Amino acid sequence: MHRLLRAFLDATEGRFPPVDGGVTHVDPPGRVHGVVAFTGHTYVMAPAPIWPSDDIDVPPPDGYGGSHDPRYVSWLARDAAEIGVLDAVLFARGTGAGSASLGRTDRHDDHHRVDHARSIRDDVRVYGDERGFVTLSTGLVGRTEFGVEADPAGHDLGWGRSLVADALGLIPDGEPVFAAVSPGNARSMRAFLAVGFTPIGSEQLWVV
Question: InterPro entries under this entry (predicted)?
Fold first, then answer.
């Protein structure tokens, strides 16, 4: 098991890294690299070296938010074609109850959210109905990941919230599932929180 995956799973059980301002370097298992921050501790998943030399005008990383400094992330991801946005990391547990309405679909294969999921994740499955769709996949360091896209017609009808709630039935009972949500996307954040997702950290990813 990748060391960062163990940290994610431990966090779902309330066991977090030490609040010491430290930085833990872990090797990326594939093309996706990134910075993942918990309270007071950061994991940098990139090839070494991860510390800028003294002759480079880039602040060094730290576990108190400094590892998300745009200057540091830009230096660390200098070989990436594109750097992803800063997201909050949330988790919930599947219910294993199934879903009467969400079925596998290929209707959304040309949607940018599906395309993005397939560019950084494996085994992407799309489920949908008239409310929109969700993606389930194997994502960063092997964790189960979740994405949702509600039809704009239902933005004031709770469709996004109900999609998230129904999709938890597609996950085995008790299995943790993770979502990355932009902090500024308050509508999405509220939907995830309302159905029991819990924030555990933040991350910024890129593909090389």
Answer: Acyl_CoA_acyltransferase (IPR016181)
Residue 176 identity: P
Phi, psi angle pair for 114, to nearest 5°: -70, -45
Answer for the pair 136, 144: CB distance below 8 angstroms, yes or no: yes
Per-residue pLDDT tens digits of the chain, which is 208 residues long? 999 999 999 999 999 999 999 999 999 999 999 999 999 999 999 999 999 999 999 999 999 999 999 999 999 999 998 899 999 999 999 999 988 788 898 888 889 889 888 888 999 999 998 999 999 999 999 999 999 988 887 677 888 889 999 999 999 999 999 999 999 999 899 999 999 999 999 999 999 9
Q: How far is residue 123 from each of residues 105, 135, 174, 183, measured CA to CA in Å?
A: 14, 10, 20, 26
Q: Which residues contact 189 (CB under 8 A, 6 or more apart)?
A: 88, 181, 183
List of residues 6+ apart from 122 with CB closer than 8 A: 137, 138, 139
- Answer for the pair 63, 21: CB distance below 8 angstroms, yes or no: yes
HSE-up of residue 136 (Cα within 13 Å, Cβ side) = 21
Predicted TM-score of the model (pTM): 0.93
Query: Which residue shows structure tokens 């940098």?
Result: 44
Domains for the chain: give ranges and CATH numbers.
3-87 (no CATH), 89-199 (3.40.630.30)
